[in-house]
Amino acid sequence: METQPSHPSHPSLPALRPLASEILAVPPSLGPVRLVGIDGHAGSGKTTFAGALAEALGGVPVLRLDDVATHEELFGWVGRLRAQVLEPLAAGRAAHWAPYDWVERRFGPERVLEPDAVLLVEGVGAGRRALRPHLARLLWMETPRVKSWGRGRDRDGRELSDFWDGWERAELAHFSDDPSRPFADILVRQSGTGYEWTSGAAGVAGTDACVTEGDESPQG
């Protein structure tokens, strides 16, 4: 019998627990599920933050919108997400969906999402108007657009520069027509020592909070 390697807890775990408790205290927003959107520019750190928050919430699932979008539908995935994920979870049923393979340019094997207490949805467009009625909370990664895109380009390398050229145009058009930040309940900022979060325009005024974490390369 093989033993599985241990995975150390994310260094932000203890300090993120107050935010996790706040999320768990809000009523479900999609059937029995608290759907939490984590939005921001490409490269703003959504994936890293979502992973840390999911752990603080006890290992809740994370749905990455990169797995829902396709080359042809960078933002035209709402109907598919609604039919495969939102409608089943709203009815208290497991959702069956197939993630997109960006290398093979096709959808991969089906996956299952059970109607857990919380589902984090992270990706550009997680706070779009079609999803906001279903969200218990909307978090926005407060990283400037140019800085975010620079991170993403550095991460993906020159071989994807053409893709990034097209992505930047598409993201600008998306947020121009359907902005998320004005509707965010919480704004999340990342520094070299951790995260800070404050109430967004849609949130209730509250006290600033700080989260300490290790110096990791942001993803998302």
List keywords for this structure.
220 residues; alpha/beta; Rossmann fold; 7-stranded mixed sheet; two-stranded antiparallel sheet; 21% strand; globular; disordered N terminus; disordered C terminus
In CATH, what is the homologous superfamily? P-loop containing nucleotide triphosphate hydrolases
The top level CATH class name: Alpha Beta
Radius of gyration: 17 Å
The CATH topology turns out to be Rossmann fold
| CATH architecture grouping | 3-Layer(aba) Sandwich
Gross morphology: globular
Query: Can you count the beta strands?
Result: 11
Helix/strand-derived category reads: alpha/beta
Number of domains: 1
Terminal-residue CA separation: 35 Å
Major beta sheet, strand line-up: 2-7-1-8-9-10-11
Order of helix and strand elements from N to C terminus: HEHEHEEEEEEHHEEE
Number of distinct helices = 5
Helix proportion? 25-40%
Strand content: 15-25%
In short:
With 220 residues, this protein is an alpha/beta fold. The chain has helices at residues 13-25, 46-56, 78-90, 145-156, 161-177; strands spanning 34-39, 62-64, 95-97, 100-101, 106-107, 111-113, 118-122, 135-141, 186-191, 194-199, 209-212.
